[in-house]
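Dear Dr. L.,

I hope this message finds you well. Following up on our conversation about the binding site, I have prepared a predicted three-dimensional model of the protein together with DQA. For your records, I am including the exact sequence and ligand specification that went into the calculation, followed by the structure tokens. Please feel free to forward this to your student if that is useful.
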Amino acid sequence: MRIDVLHGPNLNLLGTREPEIYGHTTLADIERALVDLARGLSTPDRPIDVTCFQSNHEGALIDRIQAGAAGNIDAFIFNPGGYTHTSVALRDAVIAAALPVVEVHLSNVYARESFRHRSLIADVVRGRIIGLGAQGYLLALRALIGADGS
Ligand code: DQA
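The resulting structure of the complex is given below.
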């Protein structure tokens, strides 16, 4: 099973960006934890391969989704960052991919400004994990592979 983890704009700055909101965990920390968990949950008959991609560019994220869907990706974990609240084009890409997507946000967007309360992909994703920090990505991975958490 191949899962691509997509991070949108400014998430490359995790660790130093508004640490009071996003914490001190870096994107590299998150990616390492995801790869470790995937390795731990892999079995010989069901290897789990996690790849990660971050871009500050909407089109690059769309290209990645299209390439994954046309290639060998089975599911996505997606934190679109600020594009969550604005991007019809990313919504269209998620729909066109027709693959399971779990939307993740580090912060509790509902406890923040009202413009963050709307997600343009909320109704086209498999599920959403919000406000649990970096752990949200790991929970999303477990959900996508059907792991029971043990
Ligand atoms: C975010 C929330 C967004 O509103 C914000 O623009 C981000 C990060 C989160 O993970 O909490 O860049 O997606």
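In brief: The beta strands are 2-7, 49-54, 75-79, 101-105, 127-130.

With kind regards,
A. P.
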